[in-house]
Write a structure and sequence with these properties.
By secondary structure, the protein is of the alpha/beta class. The protein contains four helices and seven strands. The chain has a seven-stranded mixed sheet. Bound molecules: adenosine-5'-diphosphate and magnesium ion (MG).
């Protein structure tokens, strides 16, 4: 397990950090992204998806729980489990194809749903973002 702590001072710097991580990901890998509201979770995931070749809009999946992308021959997904409870109540199998298989998945609010993501896929990294005043964020990337 390796941990890297970086302080960023702009969304671009956080995105660049994500791009670095994205370069090492393989099909089926899952990255968990934690932190308070506005800490930069979606900014981080957007940076990773851009590095993986996604060119269209990358919007936060807060209301849809999951968004899928396909770029450069790879299946990708971006989840926000904040509303997982509501979703699972509707149909628990609805999200089964969003993590695992050959898909590279990024998961915000992984702690919701008792680590649902870890049960569905191979978690290779945990990212934690924290506010550090103004535009500064402390970003911890832990590779498992
Ligand atoms: N260093 C930074 N890293 C990431 N985001 C930052 C940074 N500084 C300012 N921001 C801003 O903070 C907000 C983070 O929002 P978002 O990525 O949606 O957070 P979350 O998904 O954690 O709620 C964005 O408006 C972004 O531009
Ligand atoms: Mg978000």
């Amino acid at each position: 397990m390796r941990s890297a702590v970086t302080e960023t001072s702009s969304p671009e710097e956080t995105a660049a950090l994500a791009a670095e991580l994205a370069g090492s990901l393989r099909p089926g890998d899952v990255v968990l992204v934690s932190g308070d509201l506005g800490a930069g979770k979606s900014t981080f995931v957007r940076g990773a998806l851009r590095a993986l070749g996604v060119t269209g809009p990358v919007t936060s999946p807060t209301f849809t729980v999951s968004r899928r992308y396909h770029a450069e021959g790879r299946d990708l997904s971006h989840l926000d489990l904040y509303r997982l409870g509501d979703m699972a109540a509707e149909d628990p199998s609805l999200l089964d194809d969003e993590v695992g298989g050959d898909r590279i998945a990024f998961v915000e609010w992984p702690e919701v749903g008792e680590n649902w993501a870890a049960e569905h896929g191979r978690v290779v990294a945990r990212v934690r973002l924290d506010h550090a005043g103004g535009d500064r964020r402390v970003v911890v990337v832990e590779r498992l």
